[in-house]
Each structure stands twice: as structure tokens, then as C-alpha cells.
Amino acid sequence: MNNAIFVFDYPENEPVKSYSPGTPERRNLQKELDRMSSETVDIPLIIGGKEVRTGDTEPVVMPHDHGHILANYHKAGPEEVKMAIHAALKAHREWESFSYVERVSVTLRIAELISKKYRATLNAATMLGQSKNAYQAEIDSACETIDFLRFNAHYISDIYHEQPHSDPGFINRIEYRPLEGFIFSLTPFNFTAIASNLNMSPVLMGNTVLWKPASTSILSNYVLMQIFREAGLPEGVINFIPGAGSVVGNAIFTDRNFAGLHFTGSNVTFNRLWMNVAQNLRNYKSYPKIVGETGGKDFIVVHESAHVDEVSTAIVRGAFEYQGQKCSAASRAYLPASLWPLVRNRVGEMLSEVTVGDVREFSNFMNAVIDEASFDNIMNYISKAKQSPDAEVIFGGNGDKSKGYFIEPTVILTKDPHFITMEEEIFGPVLTIYVYEDKDFNEMLKLVDETSPYGLTGAIFAHDRQVLDKASKALKYSAGNLYFNDKPTGAVVGQQPFGGSRQSGTNDKAGSHLNLIRWTSPRTIKETLLPPTDFRYPFMKEDRCH
Ligand SMILES: NC(=O)c1ccc[n+]([C@@H]2O[C@H](COP(=O)([O-])OP(=O)(O)OC[C@H]3O[C@@H](n4cnc5c(N)ncnc54)[C@H](O)[C@@H]3O)[C@@H](O)[C@H]2O)c1
Ligand SMILES: N[C@@H](CCC=O)C(=O)O
Fold first, then answer.
1. What is the pLDDT of residue 6?
2. Taking Cα atoms as reference points, which of 74, 77, 55, 16 lies closest to residue 493?
3. Please, which of 12, 56, 492, 497 could form a disulfide with 509 given CB 3.0 to 4.6 Å?
4. What SS3 state is found at 371?
5. Could you tell me the distance, in angstroms and rounded to a whole number, from the CA of residue 399 to the centre of ligand 2?
6. Residue 37's pLDDT band (boundaries 50, 70, 90)?
7. Can you tell me the ipTM of this complex?
8. Rounded to whole angstroms, how far apart are CA atoms 182 and 92?
9. Where is the Aldehyde dehydrogenase domain (predicted)?
């Protein structure tokens, strides 16, 4: 394969299966849900391809039935982190020297294994461990994971084909070297696809990785790790080291070979990690690359020309799918006074049909929030609204953590556009609505732009084209992913590259060449075909002749 230039074609997005009663996918999924619900898995660390058990374990539970233990995972300490660094550096030599066609082949094999052999297993693990319903698991752990892998396999051909100009007599080329050292991949609980991609995009570019998954997504992440191995990923290319973030992080950030951080998670954690890197800057061989996508305070802006049913559907799906635990979830909405009574009624009708419960009951639109800390944090925001004279809980507002961490879809109406739930990321099923006078549309846009430190996603609803244009200009830096007449969630790889700026991250657009390029350290090579043999400039030679 080294004697050919190979291009991986533009892929199709993985089709989303329906899981309707009686379909084969529903039967397979049910079988895997039953199997995984009846066993307790022992999850080791995987370092240099070897399973390592430290005996320091924590349980993995179902958020919707927290008495049910799905697995126990072993936690890494500083010694295991050192072993993992050693394994990653050792694997680096061989992995980077492979032709990229081999790296892409492994990547595409992972996608194929997930699409066919392990779709039900990975979806069931995501449903049970992260409390996603079948549809939310399908669009995440099956489709988005596969799309990241296949689209990146295509984008790498584009990157490698990007070569400099050569004047006659010279050959210039760029080699897209991986980074010198290892990458630290720190993944969030809420998307199995993101966990896969934070590892596989640096790996595709020839890097090796230490992976610390979130403690609340370890079951699906372990299934992923097993799939990576089955696909033929060489030992040590990804080292799976669950554990306490600070323990693993401190051991990594003090290592001279730390070359890059690939992070998705909260803004608070990212800021802490960046400071940690900065404090160790003098120790490193190279300036580490830092890529981090963080939180959001995502908005829905509604103009009086919008349609009530479209807005109401976007509110319910955008704010409450996966219990609002998407960085992109709508958490503040701005409604014109003329439409508000109609939208309020329609949203109320829709919410009266929403049920919250166990993922194994397929009719539930919503399930549990991820853990007790998250439940308490969300309920605390709801209490603040209940106690404030500036806010009123108009739908939901109740939670129950006795069996699972269940919270009703909650809508707060506020008179204060700077009420705390309009500004801070809550990461739960809570939407706050502010009603403005129709004539104050322009002032309202300014408010949207200046209310929160984030800049991730946002949606504008209007059927007046000039309004869309005006609002998108006013909100230019308020969102890295902006939607016209659609909910602000559900970006599709290859169609809406994802990421935001301001306090929402470095905006390196997951699922695009922009992200992949960060995992390279390009080297330019110039070759002179006939090197000069006289140090003098041409005009000096001419002067002597005369
Ligand atoms: N912008 C995006 O693309 C995007 C996508 C998904 C999630 N998110 C954001 O992620 C957050 C939810 O995910 P989360 O709760 O898993 O985030 P988190 O910040 O709590 O954790 C992310 C990862 O960092 C680890 N970690 C936490 N503290 C650490 C420390 N001191 N040192 C080292 N590692 C540490 C965690 O164990 C986890 O693996 C939300 O804020 C959400 O908006 C953003
Ligand atoms: N990319 C996902 C969100 C990822 C963050 O949680 C979306 O567009 O909804």
C-alpha cells in the first residue's frame, strides 16, 4: 500500500435504526439489555494491551436504578499511570511508522464492528450505564461514533494531500508528523461517541494515548476499548486508565513527554487542567496542544414571525432529550409576548405526555440524570427558582432519587433576564423562559449575547428572512453552532461540525479536519535538485564580465 496513493471516499452518515416493536434491532437490543442487567462485570485497566487489576475498585450503577451494580472497575494510581506512559511511548514508534492506510483500516474496522457486530452491545451499555433511551443511545453510541470514525478516515486523505507549491528545480513537501510524546484523552460521561473520538482522532493521526474515562460512563467505554482491541489496534496505542481525575491528571501533567490534551467536559475542569499544564510548562519537551470543548448556556430566540408548533417542539426536544445533559441543550429561551400564551399551552400539552423512568421501558421519553451529585445540583437550582420572587416554576419542578435519579422536565418563567438559571450551566432538564415585548427584539438580542460567558449553540426561530439575517449578525460570537428554525441539539458529523468558543472551548470542531490537524506537528522538507556551486549573486558575476 505504500506504493499507491489511496483516497478514502466521502462516506454516508450511518442510518439511524427505528427500534420499533418487532424489528430485529429491537430484539437484539433487548437481548443485550437482559444479558447486561443480569451480570456484574469486572473492569480492569488496559495498559500496553495487558489487563491490570489494582484491587482499588468502585461500582458502576444504573442511574435509573442505582441499587443495581452493573460492574466494578479498577482504579489507576500514579504507578499505573507511569506504566501507561511507558506503554504509549513504546507503541508510538511502531504506530507512527505505519502507512496511514493501515491506521485508517483499523479505524474503519472499528466502525464496521460497531455498525454490525457490537451495535446492540454498545447501545445497551450506554443505555444502562448512562441512562439513555434507545433512540438517544442509537444516535450517540452507534451512529455518531461510526460517523466520527468514517468521516475522519476521509478527512485524513484530504489533509495528507494538502502540499506546498514547488518552484522548478525544487521539491517541497509537508509531512504531517504526530506529536512527539503522548496524548492525554479525558472524556465526559454524556456521549459514548465523544469518548471514542477523543481517542481515535489523535490515534488516526499516528499518536498514542492515555485515556481516562468519566467514572459514570465506564461500562460503555470499556466495551469500546474491547472493540478497539478486536479491530487490531496494536498494544499500547490506547491505554485505558480509569481513576480519580486529579490522581491520574497530576501524574500525567508532570511528565516531560506530555504532548497534548484532548478534553471534553465542564468549563471548571478544563480551566483547572489548563492551569495545571501552564504550571508545568518548563518541563515539557514541546508546547502541548490543548483542545477542549466545554459547557454551554444554549439559547432559543423566538421572533413573532415564528410558528408555535415548531417552537414548542424545539423547546421540548432541545431542552429535555437525554434529560438536558447535552452541552448543546436549550437552557434559556426568549419568547415574544404575542406568542408566549400559545407556546405555553402547547409546551404544557406536550410535557403532559412525557414520561420519566427506566431505560428498559421503551416508552419513556426521559430517564435519570447521571448521579446523585448531579441530581442534588439540579434540584438546588430548581429550589432557588421556587424561592425567588423573580421566578416561577410553571412545569415540573419535582425530583425523586429514592430508586433512580429522576427529575421532571422543568420550566421556569422569570422576570429577570439575569436570573441565575438564565446564566449558569445546569446540565439537567431545566429550561428558563424570559418573555420580552415584541417591539424590543433588538434589545433582546443584545441581552442574549451578553448574558452568559458561553458561546456553544443557539437557535433562532423566525419566518422573516431579514430577521434571521439580523439575529445571526447580532449573535455572531454567541454560538459556534447556530440553528435557524431548528432545535440547538443533534449536530451530525460531516454536516454540522461541532464546537463553540468563548468559555465553551477551543472550538476545534470535532468531526472535521480542523480537529485532526491539531494532532499533527508538520515538518516541511525542501529538496534542491541542482544545488548552487557559486556563493556570488548573479549580478556580481555580470559586474566582473564588464
Ligand atoms: N462542548 C462539547 O462538545 C461538550 C460535549 C459533551 C459534554 N460537554 C460538557 O461536559 C460537561 C459534562 O461532562 P462531565 O460531567 O463528564 O464533565 P467533567 O468536567 O466533570 O469531567 C470530564 C472529565 O474530566 C475528568 N476530571 C474531572 N476533574 C478532573 C481533574 N481535576 N483532573 C483530571 N480530570 C478531571 C472527569 O473524571 C471526566 O473524565 C458539561 O459541562 C457539558 O457541557 C461539552
Ligand atoms: N454534539 C451534540 C452535543 C454534544 C454535547 O454534549 C449535539 O449537537 O447535540
1. 87
2. 16
3. 497
4. coil
5. 25
6. very high
7. 0.98
8. 8
9. 56-513
Residue 77 CB less than 6 A away from ligand 2: no
- CB-CB contact of 461 with 302 (8 Å): yes
d(CA 89, CA 257): 8
Nearest-10 Cα torsion for 424, 427, 433, 438: 80
User: Would you say the C-alpha torsion 387, 391, 394, 399 has a positive or negative sign?
Assistant: negative
CA of 144 to the centre of ligand 2 (A): 10
CATH 3.40.605.10 fits 46-294+505-526, yes or no: yes
SS3 522: strand
What pLDDT is recorded for position 388? 98
Top-tier CATH class for 298-484 = alpha beta
Distance CA 468, CA 485 (A): 9
- Cβ(328) to ligand 2 under 6 A? yes
Query: Is the beta carbon of 263 within 6 A of some atom in ligand 2?
Result: no
Which pLDDT value is given to residue 300? 98
| Residue pLDDT, tens place only, 176-209 | 999 999 999 999 999 999 999 999 999 999 999 9
CATH 3.40.605.10 boundaries in the chain? 46-294+505-526
- CA 109 to CA 123: how far, in whole Å? 18
Helices 245-253, 78-97: crossing angle, 10 deg rounding = 60
Ligand lying nearest the CA atom of residue 371: 1
In the β-sheet with 410-414, what is the strand arrangement from edge to edge? Answer: 391-395, 410-414, 430-436, 330-336, 298-302, 457-461, 481-484
- Quickly list H helices, 5-133: 24-37, 78-97, 100-112, 119-130
Give catalytic residues, as residue numbers. 293
Average confidence (pLDDT) over 510-532: 97
Burial level of 63, CB count in 10 A (0-12/13-18/19+)? buried
Under the banding of pLDDT at 50, 70 and 90, the label for residue 538 is confident
- Per-residue pLDDT for 541 more than 80? no
> How large is the average pLDDT for residues 64-82?
98
Find the ligand nearest to 496 CA.
2
